[in-house]
Amino acid sequence: MRLVLVGPPGAGKGTQAVNLASHFAIPHISTGDIFRSNLKAGTPLGLEAKSHMDRGELVPDEVTNKMVKDRLSKDDVKPGFLLDGFPRNVVQADVLKAILEEKKSPIEAALELVVDKNEIINRLSGRRTCKNCQRAFHIQYEKPAKDGLCDGCGGDLYQREDDKEEVIARRLEVYSEQTAPIIDFYAREGVLISIPAMGAVDEVTKRAIDALAARSGSNA
Ligand code: ADP
Ligand code: AMP
After folding, report:
1. Closest ligand by atom to 171 CA
2. Which is deepest, 16, 18, 20, 44, by most CB within 10 Å?
3. Phi-psi map region of 42: left, alpha, beta (phi>0 left; psi -120 to 50 alpha)
4. What atom of ligand 2 comes closest to residue 57's alpha carbon?
5. Largest CA distance in the chain
6. CATH H superfamily, domain 2-26+79-125+178-216
7. pLDDT given at position 215
8. Which atom of ligand 1 lies nearest, measured to the CA of 30?
9. Which of 81, 120, 116, 115 is CA-nearest to residue 99?
10. DSSP annotation string for 76-88
11. Which residues line ligand 2 (CB under 6 A)?
């Protein structure tokens, strides 16, 4: 399965990606996670990305596209992959299409998570992220078993710089101006599947798996 997750910041892409990647046994590739891991490791890529991320802007396409191209050249993506946070504009979507055309293995589905704006703001402002494995929790909706600690790896939870109110507003603008057009792009490609992403995490996962199964059944 070669899958792209689409939706505004806070729609639940990272949360659903973990469940779907495990269900389909494919790697979860999050460009945001790769930038944050690089930042933590103090690499030049991480430092370059930080200046854009902290302002809620996109990291320049040349940097991001090269990083994704390198990642998609690894052997573990042969059975498929799930991209989370990429593409984020039409140029990136075109680059992805070209990379995959070369491998004769196009995107099979772009799964759009549809969430109300108020819910997005609640989700983003209450998000807490593991410093170590980057798993997302929520102070109200997805509480960790132990306060401030990740259920998965025990790492410390923190509030991302770009989850503060001023930056959230800019990220939502960037989404509508630059990222939302990729929904039409994938609709034209004939691979768009939109699902409501309100409700509990597991319900949304079930909806996603059912929608993907219905699509692959109808293509069979
Ligand atoms: P994205 O990757 O799209 O930015 P996340 O997966 O990080 O979004 O989710 C944003 C926040 O919303 C996190 O705090 C997460 O715990 C929470 N969240 C995700 N899905 C749900 C859901 N279905 N219901 C309530 N909270 C959710
Ligand atoms: P995310 O973890 O997906 O919310 O991404 C956090 C931030 O990383 C974004 O606001 C951007 O600054 C940067 N980023 C992640 N993915 C991309 C991308 N595909 N293109 C450009 N910037 C990105």
Report:
1. 2
2. 16
3. left
4. 12
5. 47
6. P-loop containing nucleotide triphosphate hydrolases (3.40.50.300)
7. 85
8. 2
9. 81
10. GGTT-EEEES---
11. 9, 31-32, 35, 52-53, 56-59, 64, 85-86, 88, 92, 162, 171
